[in-house]
Write a structure and sequence with these properties.
heterodimer; A: 112 residues; mainly beta; 6-stranded mixed beta sheet; B: 111 residues; 11 strands
Chain lengths: 112, 111
């Protein structure tokens, strides 16, 4: 079952904050976040495991609400380099090597 | 430098033709994956392999085939049975419970 990402697209001014959500109708073992620039390979951002932990580095962080089966990606004080399409990929089991089911993506445009 | 190499970058297929996309990794990763990306659809899993000589179908395996004879290599064949093969194909690899690393992709088009 494909996770649902929201919003589909967002336009921000440099320095503004953004939140991207990823929801699943099934119980998740983990959520992986990636950013992809046009025509390039996706780049890994972080993994959230079930247990509700929050992770982050620099001005990008994420959380995983196990009760809601929802993960949120937080981009603080956005920079021009944050522009791209953000994907969440989900795992249902804890095997760790079964492949991911990705959402359709959230397009983020940062304007100067 | 360690990484994942996909080739060719662009590929054209004629009607009724099978084509093979190459994916090689030197990261010593056990697991390898093939995804297909269409505009507005995100990435969809075609096949994956957790160990050499073993692989499993993903969500959209029909019309595709793979092999895993070496740890480093996981080629994908797009057969003539795949009626809509035009897409961006991404190969990835990972260790168990670790992030997937992606290659730069192959764009396949129909002549």
């Amino acid at each position: 079952q494909q996770p649902v990402q929201s919003p589909q697209a967002v336009i921000l001014r440099e320095g503004e904050d953004a939140v991207i959500n990823c929801s699943s109708s099934k119980a998740l073992y983990s959520v992986h976040w990636y950013r992809q620039k046009h025509g390039e390979a996706p780049v890994f951002l972080m993994i959230l495991l079930k247990g509700g932990e929050q992770k982050g580095h620099d001005k990008i962080s994420a959380s995983f609400n196990e009760k809601k089966q929802q993960s949120s990606l937080y981009l603080t004080a956005s920079q021009l380099s944050y522009s791209g399409t953000y994907f969440c990929g989900t795992e249902l089991s804890g095997g760790g090597a079964d492949g991911l089911t990705f959402g359709k993506g959230t397009h983020l445009i940062i304007q100067p | 430098d360690g990484g994942i190499t996909q080739s060719p970058k662009y590929l054209f297929r004629k009607e009724g033709q099978n084509v093979t996309l190459s994916c090689e990794q030197n990261l010593n990763h056990d697991a390898m994956y093939w995804y297909r990306q269409d505009p507005g659809q995100g990435l969809r899993l075609i096949y994956y392999s957790q160990i050499v000589n073993d692989f499993q179908k993903g969500d959209i395996a029909e019309g595709y085939s793979v092999s895993r004879e070496k740890k480093e290599s996981f080629p994908l064949t797009v057969t003539s049975a795949q009626k809509n093969p035009t897409a961006f194909y991404l190969c990835a690899s990972s260790m168990r419970m670790r992030p997937q690393h992606f290659g730069d992709g192959t764009r396949l088009s129909i002549l």
